[in-house]
Amino acid sequence: MSYARRQALVVRGGRAGESPVRTTNLFLPFLRRQGFDVLVEDCLEVYEDKKLLAETDLVVQCWQGGDITPRESAGLRTAVQNGTGLAGWHTGLMNAFPEDLDYQLLVGGTFRIDPSESGRHRVRLAAGRADHPVLTGLTDFDADVVRYWPLTDPMIDVLATIGFDGDDSRPGVQAVPAVWTRTWGRGRVFASVLGAQPGDFDIPQVRTLTERGLLWACR
Q1: Which of 75, 78, 93, 99 could cross-link to 47 by cystine, CB 3.0-4.6 Å?
Q2: Of the candidates 28, 61, 27, 55, which has an alpha carbon nearest to the alpha carbon of residue 43?
Q3: What span, in angstroms and rounded, lies between the C-alpha atoms of 213 and 163?
């Protein structure tokens, strides 16, 4: 099957602890098989390149902490507003620039609390969303994850949740967003809390969700 060539920009770097290079490397062959020309950058200055971003159909970001300049942040937001897709996972997308509120609004959420240790947890797909392109044919599954409590925009489209047990202050199980999508102007954003380490993508459902999310976000 032939595909029209599309452009993907993979932006990765920051802290090395959570393996932005190794995790994004897992998806480079997939993107190329899907008809993308893939450009990999290890600096945020690329977000100031208006021409490149205008020609980019999908930005895949895995940037582990740090600062983004106002010009870089504005460049990314404008590109998505104009139709460039944005996708990523775990802290590489959701907590990349914790001081930039405009960036957090673009993504649709950010990590703020890590109240529990990592372990095996149930990922529950959103009721009534079985026909979403990211979820088609999938069912609830278990995954080894570090559960973060994210602050999220109520306008995101939640596709999956992870439960937190109740405690003295919050009785009952609390379901918090784990996978979501959103639109931003003419662009689309896909975000997943899954994928802290390369081995997390060995779970078939995690890999499938992520691959489908990349394609869904693409222009």
Answers
A1: 75
A2: 61
A3: 22
Q: Read off the tokens for 68.
A: 């983004």
Query: pLDDT by residue (tens digit) across 69-117?
Result: 999 999 999 999 999 999 999 989 998 998 899 999 999 999 876 655 5
- Specify the pairing of strand 141-145 against strand 119-125: antiparallel
How close are the terminal C-alpha atoms of the chain, in Å? 20
- DSSP, res 45: G
- Extended strands (E) in the chain: 6-14, 36-41, 58-64, 85-89, 109-113, 119-125, 141-145, 149-152, 157-164, 174-184, 187-192
| SS3 sequence of 120-153 | EEEEEECCCCCCCCCCCCCCCEEEEECCCEEEEC
Beta strands 6-14 and 36-41 are: parallel
State which amino acid sits at residue 120. R
Reported as a single tens digit per residue, the pLDDT across 206-218 is 999 999 999 999 9
CA distances from 130 to 138, 190, 197 (A): 8, 17, 27
Spatial separation of the C-alpha atoms in residues 83 and 217, rounded to whole Å: 10
Q: Is the pTM of this model over 0.85?
A: yes
| Predicted local confidence at residue 18, as pLDDT | 61
- Residue identified by tokens 């200055």 is 45
Q: Among candidates 190, 191, 208, which has minimal Cα distance to 148?
A: 191
